[in-house]
């Protein structure tokens, strides 16, 4: 068995290899402002995700009836999505069913531009556990940050993995139970404490691919067997609460301290997108209607049916010259009426329908 610190080292290697990159490091240069979420929102992941909010940054994802599937079907696939928004402290609640299988890693990552990072990671050989982790400014010199937490049936059930993040402390919760707390001062007096605006990323990757380092493959539980796939992580729903409201977040200097982050006021692009009326299905539009409106539509539909029936009768009346309908309607004898009706219908089909088509009202 691995020692805890070796496991930590391996976890570190794996984590850093996964989805931890930045396009512009504000510690070295001046970067564009980070668009904020600036609000709270819950996404049901069993519907096509809005690509203005969730960007597929690698591979393809699939929508299932219970969530979004992240699958490894073939060698080196690692579908990943990333929020286009950033949160500056807040809550990220992810309902996840991990992928099982040696060499397969499922993950939820909060990642900032200067590589502050908060993780949940599921290593597929252990379907009753999850690892928690964090990094400050991409500092990878310590190997004892990973936490190991028991979760029953993590690969066959959705569980609620929540991080609660403030400038003072970081908490990891599983199904409503607090499993780990990191205080600002306990992360090398804050220097390793995640404290800058972060995106939210979901993904799966083959840590056990033969191209990975031996350490990563061992951390991932051995080499992945692609033939035994596909390997599937499912995200059922996600709630994100940004603790700041505003349009964007700016680094005012190169310190990477949370005090240096300026919150630019205004409505965030994400919030505007979220409050924009989504394209609704007919069933959803119906469900949204008031009882009065529904009654109105029922009446309208009834009127339409009555109107159609009326039109139909008019059509028959138009045939009055033939004398048949009138005769049928006036006839008190049911059998005669029916006979006349049948005769009429036969005539009607032959003459009107075939020659002229259906002309309800002339
Ligand atoms: C930013 O600078 C630090 C040292 O100041 C360096 O370690 C890091 O690699 C640099 N990052 C980028 C993205 O250039
Ligand atoms: C989405 O991800 C792709 C691939 O990483 C990237 O090129 C693109 O700029 C991203 N789009 C947004 C809106 O972030
Ligand atoms: C998505 O999940 C929600 C909540 O469980 C459910 O009400 C809804 O019917 C599901 N939608 C689809 C398309 O399966
Ligand atoms: C899986 O991980 C959890 C949390 O570390 C641990 O309690 C459990 O014993 C592990 N199970 C196996 C089979 O390694
Ligand atoms: C990186 O973290 C280690 C402890 O985990 C700490 O000793 C070291 O000072 C940190 N490096 C920087 C540049 O903060
Ligand atoms: C979600 O649905 C998939 C099939 O579409 C199934 O394999 C998986 O077990 C389901 N997960 C839960 C927790 O119901
Ligand atoms: C998920 O866990 C968080 C933290 O305990 C809790 O606040 C939230 O209500 C839970 N979500 C659901 C749907 O139970
Ligand atoms: C990989 O999985 C396939 C299908 O389940 C199985 O037949 C094969 O023996 C496995 N290979 C190894 C090396 O375990
Ligand atoms: C960065 O800005 C913050 C807030 O204005 C300030 O407290 C801090 O001293 C600055 N740090 C550096 C290194 O300039
Ligand atoms: C922000 O949104 C609110 C409500 O949607 C709107 O009333 C307000 O004018 C918007 N503010 C800006 C600066 O666009």
UniProtKB/TrEMBL annotation:
It catalyses: Random endo-hydrolysis of N-acetyl-beta-D-glucosaminide (1->4)-beta-linkages in chitin and chitodextrins. The chain crosses the membrane at residues 295-317. The keyword Chaperone does not apply. Keywords: Cell membrane, Cell wall, Cell wall biogenesis/degradation, Glycoprotein, Glycosidase, Glycosyltransferase, GPI-anchor, Hydrolase, Lipoprotein, Membrane, Secreted, Signal, Transferase, Transmembrane, Transmembrane helix. One of its GO terms (molecular function) is endochitinase activity. It comes from the Eukaryota. Its main location: membrane. It is a lipid-anchor; GPI-anchor. PROSITE patterns: GH16_2 (PS51762). It is found in: Cell membrane; Secreted, Cell wall. Gene3D superfamilies: 2.60.120.200. One of its GO terms (biological process) is carbohydrate metabolic process. Its EC number is 3.2.1.14. Residues 1-18 form the signal peptide. Dual chitinase/transglycosylase that plays a role in cell wall architecture. Chitinase and transglycosylase activities are coupled. Required for the polysaccharide cross-linking at the septa and the cell wall. More specifically, transfers chitin to 1,6-beta-glucan in the cell wall. PANTHER family: GLYCOSIDASE-RELATED, GLYCOSYL HYDROLASE-RELATED. Belongs to the glycosyl hydrolase 16 family. CRH1 subfamily. This is chitinase. It comes from Penicilliopsis zonata CBS 506.65. The lineage of its organism: Eukaryota, Fungi, Dikarya, Ascomycota, Pezizomycotina.
């Amino acid at each position: 068995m691995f020692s805890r610190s070796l496991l930590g080292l391996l976890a570190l290697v794996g984590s850093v290899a996964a989805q931890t990159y930045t396009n512009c490091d504000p510690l070295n240069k001046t970067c564009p402002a980070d668009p904020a979420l600036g609000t709270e929102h819950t996404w049901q992941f069993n519907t096509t995700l809005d690509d203005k909010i969730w960007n597929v940054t690698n591979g393809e994802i699939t929508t299932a009836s219970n969530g979004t599937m992240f699958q490894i079907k073939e060698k080196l696939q690692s579908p990943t999505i990333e929020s286009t928004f950033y949160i500056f402290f807040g809550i990220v609640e992810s309902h996840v069913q991990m992928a099982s299988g040696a060499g397969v890693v499922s993950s939820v990552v909060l990642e900032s531009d200067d590589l502050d990072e908060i993780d949940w990671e599921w290593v597929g050989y252990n379907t009753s556990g999850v690892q928690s982790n964090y990094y400050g400014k991409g500092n990878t010199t310590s190997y004892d940050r990973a936490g190991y937490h028991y979760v029953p049936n993590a690969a066959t059930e959705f569980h609620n993995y929540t991080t609660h993040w403030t400038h003072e402390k970081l908490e990891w919760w599983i199904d409503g139970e607090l499993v780990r707390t990191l205080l600002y001062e306990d992360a090398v007096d804050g220097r390793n404490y995640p404290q800058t605006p972060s995106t939210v990323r979901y993904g799966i990757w083959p840590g056990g691919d033969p191209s990975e380092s031996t350490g990563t493959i061992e951390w991932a539980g051995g080499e992945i067997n692609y033939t035994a796939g596909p390997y599937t992580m499912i995200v059922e729903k996600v709630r994100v609460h940004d603790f700041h409201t505003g349009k964007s977040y700016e680094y005012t200097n190169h310190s990477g301290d949370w005090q240096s982050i300026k919150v630019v006021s205004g409505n965030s692009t994400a919030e505007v997108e979220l409050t924009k009326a989504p394209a609704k299905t007919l069933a959803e539009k119906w469900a949204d209607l008031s009882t009065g409106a529904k009654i109105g539509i029922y009446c309208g539909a009834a009127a339409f049916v009555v109107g159609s029936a009326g039109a139909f009768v008019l059509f028959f009346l138009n045939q009055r010259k033939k004398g048949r309908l009138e005769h049928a309607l006036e006839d008190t004898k049911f059998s005669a009426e029916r006979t006349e009706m049948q005769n009429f219908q036969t005539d009607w089909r032959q003459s009107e329908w075939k020659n002229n088509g259906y002309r309800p009202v002339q």
